[in-house]
Amino acid sequence: MLRETASQTAGPYVHIGLALAAAGNPVRDEEIWNEMAKPNTEGEPIEVVGTVIDGNGDLVRDAFVEAWQADANGHYQADYDLSKPFNSFGRTATTFDHGSEWSLTTIKPGAVKHPSGQLMAPHINLTLFARGVNIHLQTRLYFDDEAEANAQCPVLTRIESPARRQTLIAKREEVDGKVRYRLDIRLQGEGETVFFDF
User: Fold this and answer.
1) Model confidence at 11, in pLDDT bands (50, 70, 90)?
2) Are 63 and 93 within 8 A, CB to CB?
3) Distance, CA of 143 to CA of 168 (rounded, Å)
4) Pairwise pLDDT comparison (29 vs 187), residue with the higher score
């Protein structure tokens, strides 16, 4: 009887193939990376930043993050095209430089309709790949200045513990006159980020 093959951890190969700049390699002419929105995109321009922290409280300096979000009107863009002002999909990575932060240049997403018919609070879907993580982790980033929408979101409110919900709420900052939201992802331990099974 054959045994199931073990899941492959991300290792260094994700960066080599998908995060060329983070791996120190020359980038391709057309690269899916962390600029999801160009300056002429409809909506509020924002930057999203964060770190990935392991169970010992140490920075994970080689994590890879994929982001998927709606546009300002709450619609996902299904066709990826670098010439468009906005694409719903982006990638980013932590590195050994700049405080090991991942970052996205995007716009604040609009509310998206849940299959139940309710509106979900504005959010960004995040998928995390990292060493030691056998199967990618799925989470969400919500915005702290959307308290009313967050309180009614059919997904966020399924998390019973209000303290656990806070692990998904990005904090608004203003840096050099630009709006930035910060979310640190904790893989284990105190303040562990909520991860979803979908």
Assistant:
1) low
2) yes
3) 8
4) 187
Number of domains in the chain: 1
CB of 139 closer than 8 Å to CB of 82: no
In a domain, 9, yes or no: no
Amino acid at 46: I
In a domain, 20, yes or no: no
In a domain, 39, yes or no: yes
Please give the residue range of the domain that contains residue 54. 28-186
Which CATH number characterizes residue 155's domain?
A: 2.60.130.10
Contact 36, 104 (CB under 8 A): yes
Which pLDDT score, from 0 to 100, does residue 96 have?
A: 82
Give the DSSP letter of residue 86: B
User: Closest by alpha carbon to 105, among 87, 118, 121, 119?
Assistant: 87
Q: What is the pLDDT of residue 196?
A: 96
Specify whether the backbone of 189 is left (phi greater than 0), alpha (psi in -120 to 50) or beta: left
